[in-house]
Design the sequence.
């Protein structure tokens, strides 16, 4: 990020990117087997920070027609049909939130904290937005810097290096998920913290298991993100992009790399 107040976006803001984000979000919901935890019975007000194309917020609004859903993001939602109980709000997560403390029964952020300067401080501010007994849902990531399984795929190694260094260059943390549980455990406002850790192989066997299916889907959406990334301008970057896409398209290439995903479900203390 270029400053403490304005997040930089390294991916495009267009219909193609929104469709990619929808597919990725739906795949993550399929992996989890839910939109909201089963013990969240009758939420009245739900906030999503970093809503992207609005896919998760739209699905939650349809599943909970009696709830008010706010999809918050720096960029407007795409021009698409929205449920009547869903509204968009322009929000910069690095600035004070335009909501009173204790406003929401559920607060959700998916692959958002890793892109923010000092995401752990943002976590604390998200907890403040919860009602007593409210639920915080954080889904985040770890891009390992161990490329030992990529000796045969230098293009993929180069592409992943670009992802990691690019995230750091704008002030984000490509390994945010690894510290998520410790950050949440440190909060005196939470009564319970549960973090599920899932390692998804990007080139694993397609055995039909939820993790394998998610790994394949994430690989596809990652490939499309690199293919459409607007920040690739130099000859060296273009060469890395070309080799990455060629390696990803080579079905006979022997390589391995897994991405860590962290799914936190937390409860705020009751009054």
Sequence:
């Amino acid at each position: 990020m270029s400053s403490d107040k304005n997040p930089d976006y390294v991916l495009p803001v267009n219909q193609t990117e929104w469709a990619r984000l929808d597919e990725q979000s739906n795949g993550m919901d399929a992996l989890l087997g839910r939109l909201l935890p089963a013990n969240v019975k009758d939420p009245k007000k739900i906030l999503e920070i970093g809503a992207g194309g609005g896919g998760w917020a739209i699905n939650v609004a349809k599943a909970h027609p009696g709830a008010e859903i706010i999809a918050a993001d720096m960029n407007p939602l795409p021009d698409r049909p929205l449920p009547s109980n869903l509204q968009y709000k322009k929000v910069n997560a690095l600035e004070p939130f335009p909501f009173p403390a204790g406003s929401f029964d559920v607060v959700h952020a998916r692959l958002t904290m890793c892109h923010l300067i000092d995401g752990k401080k943002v976590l604390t501010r998200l907890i403040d937005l919860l009602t007593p007994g409210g639920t915080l849902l954080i889904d985040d990531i770890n891009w390992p810097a161990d490329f030992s399984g990529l000796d045969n795929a230098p293009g993929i190694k180069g592409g992943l290096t670009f992802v990691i260094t690019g995230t750091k260059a704008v002030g984000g943390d490509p390994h945010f998920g690894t510290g998520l549980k410790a950050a949440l455990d440190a909060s005196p406002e939470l009564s319970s913290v549960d973090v599920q850790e899932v390692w998804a192989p990007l080139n694993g066997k397609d055995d039909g298991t939820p993790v394998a299916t998610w790994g394949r889907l994430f690989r596809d959406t990652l490939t499309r993100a690199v293919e459409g990334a607007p920040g690739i301008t130099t000859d060296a970057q273009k060469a890395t992009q070309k080799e990455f896409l060629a390696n990803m398209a080579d079905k006979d290439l022997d390589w391995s790399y897994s991405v860590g995903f962290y799914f936190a479900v937390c409860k705020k203390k009751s009054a």
User: Anything to note?
Assistant: The radius of gyration is 19 Å.
